[in-house]
Design brief:
The complex is a heterodimer. Chain A has 15 helices and eleven strands. Chain A is α/β, with parallel strands linked by helices. In chain A, helix 9 packs across helix 11. By secondary structure, chain B is mostly helical. Chain B is 31% helix and 0% strand. Classes of the chains: A alpha/beta, B mainly alpha.
């Protein structure tokens, strides 16, 4: 058994049967990280000692017949946006270069309780702002299928870690597509759960009404297994849903007979890559062959999703990131004077410390979004921009509500193109923002969405398919993706493009 | 002040300086120039929302039709002072230390 290419479900079974130990399994992934991460840069930090100590403890407990959690001994990679008490949490920002959180995120606490092995923290766009993982203060991430291409973002490190077999399971977060889009571009499966299904406590806040944590893995079945461990109500996040968590694994094997899948004509408009369009259409055909029916539905305001998102998310970010003040934690200006001709007069020494600490600690995209959000919320512009976007947000949500009266799920592309070249969009913020075209709707409406591989281009880049479903439709999303993966093997293809 | 039907809003360097002070960002000369151009472009892009008539639409601030969540008003253990101060760039035994709140800048 080559452990690094074996699914988490099979690893779990082999661990339970005693065919392998968690130390062996964890070592295999740590070694793979050791050989691959210098090229891919998917991990910002690797906790070799902590991971092996936990693996040994799990092996010992298992040998003694003690009860173990559902992920016992399985390695997991965690996006560096989630607070961990035993590892630095940087959010890929210079601002948090040395930050050691005083508490664990609820998701991290649940992973520990499930006896998972946390391998390390994955790279990302700084503060989860970006769609290419080129905005990390600690270097970009390379796509394992083409190391000159971007893995997508902002959970690019988690996606690349799974795609390159450095971890069988990974945690991502999705504010406008940050799980689904990198999953699509890296040829893996990623689920953005319904808003509130997973606690946001200890998730470093970007846009609090949009942020949601979710599972990333090779297959829908492994995503189901990981979601099972992290979903649930948390009194520490008053927006987490206080409704029972269903069993995500039992319904996976049900056939899709009678499932109604919506197809949105607008998804196939200008800008959609021809090869992507072909694979997406073939996926619809595969669903029809599996007993589903395809129905045209309309999302009339879908094309306003990106501008709506790029008012709401930066506005919430400008408020959330006000906490980085150089006083409580994070980077602080050391007082060195500068002769730059930019902003140089301040109301007081305290204000100068705030302004210079923030200017030094944040990278260009984070500054751009804080500026945009501050502008949209400022006196005289609030109604024209922020309040307007909130009104359009309701129209976007209403579109989904109407569509889900006719269909159970909506299918379509996850990204307009396969992975794009590194540097291709970095000079044009608006072009970069448009990579979120198909994904922001689910965040604005608070619904669920899953992305999974549905083919490869002629140049061997993965193509992703997205299914979106109403609130709390995770069982159906996972079942539909799993059933597709029972008759296709796109999700099992492994890359050979990583230079050794 | 822009109106909703203004087609191409642009930001001046003075606008950007004003917003940067609101955002507490000591932007450099170069950043002020690039952001003036980039923000104008982005604001122009998001302004396409003005095409939509939303006169009868209530704002939606949050995806959940959530209600206020109440809990018992009871003290529970929280971060200790030491834990809360541990990551502060400057602190003493019980307080965060910051430069003077009043007075001229340049003496931090």
């Amino acid at each position: 058994m080559t452990m690094t290419t074996t699914s988490a479900t099979e690893l779990a079974s082999a661990l339970q049967k005693g065919e392998i130990t968690s130390v062996e399994c964890t070592t295999a992934f740590l070694d793979r990280i050791g050989s691959t991460n210098p090229t891919i840069n998917a991990f910002l930090s690797v906790d070799r000692d902590g991971a092996l100590a936990k693996a040994e403890a799990v092996d010992t407990a298992r040998a003694q017949g003690k009860p173990l959690g559902p992920l016992a001994g399985l390695p997991v990679a965690v996006k560096d946006v989630l607070c961990t008490t035993d590892q630095k949490t940087t959010c890929a920002s210079r601002m948090l270069k040395t930050y050691e959180p005083p508490y664990d995120a609820d998701v991290v606490r649940r992973l520990r309780e499930a006896d998972a092995i946390i391998l390390g923290k994955t790279n990302m766009d700084e503060f989860a702002m970006g769609g290419s993982n080129e905005n990390s203060a600690y270097g970009l991430v390379r796509n394992p299928w083409d190391t000159n291409s971007a893995p997508g973002g902002s959970s690019g490190g988690s996606a690349a870690a799974v795609a390159a077999d450095m971890a069988p399971l990974a945690i991502g977060s999705d504010t406008g597509g940050s799980i689904r889009q990198p999953a699509g571009l890296c040829g893996i499966t990623g689920l953005k759960p319904t808003y509130g299904r997973v606690s946001r406590r200890g998730l470093i806040a970007f846009s609090s009404s949009l942020d949601q944590i979710g599972p990333m893995a090779r297959s829908a079945k492994e995503c189901a297994m990981l979601l099972q461990a992290i979903a649930g109500h948390d009194p520490g996040d008053s927006t987490s849903l206080n409704t029972p968590v269903p069993d995500y694994l039992t319904g996976l094997e049900k056939p899709l007979q009678g499932l109604r899948i919506g197809r949105v004509a607008e998804h196939f408009g200008e800008g959609l890559d021809q090869e992507v369009a072909e694979h997406v259409e073939q996926t619809f055909a595969a669903y029809e062959a599996a007993g589903a029916t395809i129905h045209e539905v309309e999302l009339p305001h879908a094309r306003y999703g990106v501008p709506t998102y790029y008012l709401i998310a930066p506005s919430e970010a400008s408020s959330n990131l006000a906490r980085y003040d150089g006083a409580h934690y994070g980077h602080r200006w050391d007082g060195t004077p500068t002769d730059d001709q930019g902003i140089s007069t301040f109301d007081s020494p305290l204000v100068e410390m705030y302004c210079r600490s923030r200017a030094e600690g944040f990278g260009p995209e984070v500054k751009r979004r804080i500026m945009l959000g501050t502008y949209a919320l400022s006196a005289g512009y609030y109604d024209a921009y922020y309040a307007k976007a909130l009104r359009v947000r309701r129209l976007i949500r209403n579109d989904f509500t109407q569509a889900f009266k006719k269909v159970d799920l909506i299918g379509g592309p996850v990204s307009a193109t396969p992975a794009f070249k590194l540097g291709e969009k970095t000079d044009d913020p608006v072009a970069m923002y448009l990579v979120d075209l198909y994904t922001v709707g689910a965040n604005l409406a608070g619904i669920g969405g899953i992305s999974f591989p549905c083919g490869f281009t002629k140049t061997n880049l993965p193509v992703g398919f997205q299914l979106q479903g109403p609130a709390l439709s995770e069982p159906l999303l996972l079942q539909a993706a799993h059933q597709y993966q029972q008759t296709t093997d796109w999700h099992l293809q492994r890359t050979t493009a990583i230079p050794s | 002040m822009p109106t909703q039907d203004e087609a191409t809003p642009t930001l001046t360097r003075e606008d950007v300086i004003k917003v940067a002070m609101l955002a507490r960002l000591a932007l450099s000369d170069t950043e002020l120039s690039s952001l003036t151009e980039e923000l104008s472009k982005i604001v122009g892009f998001v302004s396409q929302l003005s095409e939509i008539n939303t006169d009868e639409v209530e704002p939606l601030a949050h995806p959940l039709d959530s209600q206020n969540v109440f809990r018992e008003d009871r003290p529970v253990p929280s971060l200790t002072t030491a834990d809360a101060l541990r990551c502060a760039p400057r602190h003493d035994e019980e307080c965060f230390l910051v430069p003077a709140v009043l007075g001229e800048s340049g003496s931090a």
